[in-house]
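> call design_seq(struct)
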């Protein structure tokens, strides 16, 4: 629930109040989400699904250039893509595929 709320605040901040979004930039939320997924117990089940879904929602809904740059800088997305999730769990696999698709739809020459 907390992770979902963070995503909502980030998106709202990006679209309405840059200071809120800047707070997440300054506190390196992508690093935090990556660290959550680095824990082996969080690579399967509800935590993995929630983080992957949250990341997909954030990537899909961030509109500002600064926000997009933030998401794709510092290799956090690359590091998350490289994590060995439990693909035996079909739901985790589905969320991972959706995450990759969301990334691919956001990429262009400037990102």
């Amino acid at each position: 629930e907390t992770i979902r709320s963070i995503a909502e605040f980030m998106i709202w901040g990006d679209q309405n109040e840059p200071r809120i979004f800047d707070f997440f930039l300054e506190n390196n939320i992508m690093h935090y989400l990556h660290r959550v997924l680095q824990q082996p117990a969080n690579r399967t089940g509800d935590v993995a699904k929630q983080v992957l879904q949250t990341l997909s929602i954030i990537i899909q809904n961030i509109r500002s250039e600064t926000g997009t740059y933030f998401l794709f800088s510092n290799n956090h997305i690359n590091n998350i893509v490289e994590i060995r999730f439990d693909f035996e769990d079909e739901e985790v696999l589905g969320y991972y595929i959706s995450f990759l698709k969301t990334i691919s739809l956001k990429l262009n020459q400037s990102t």
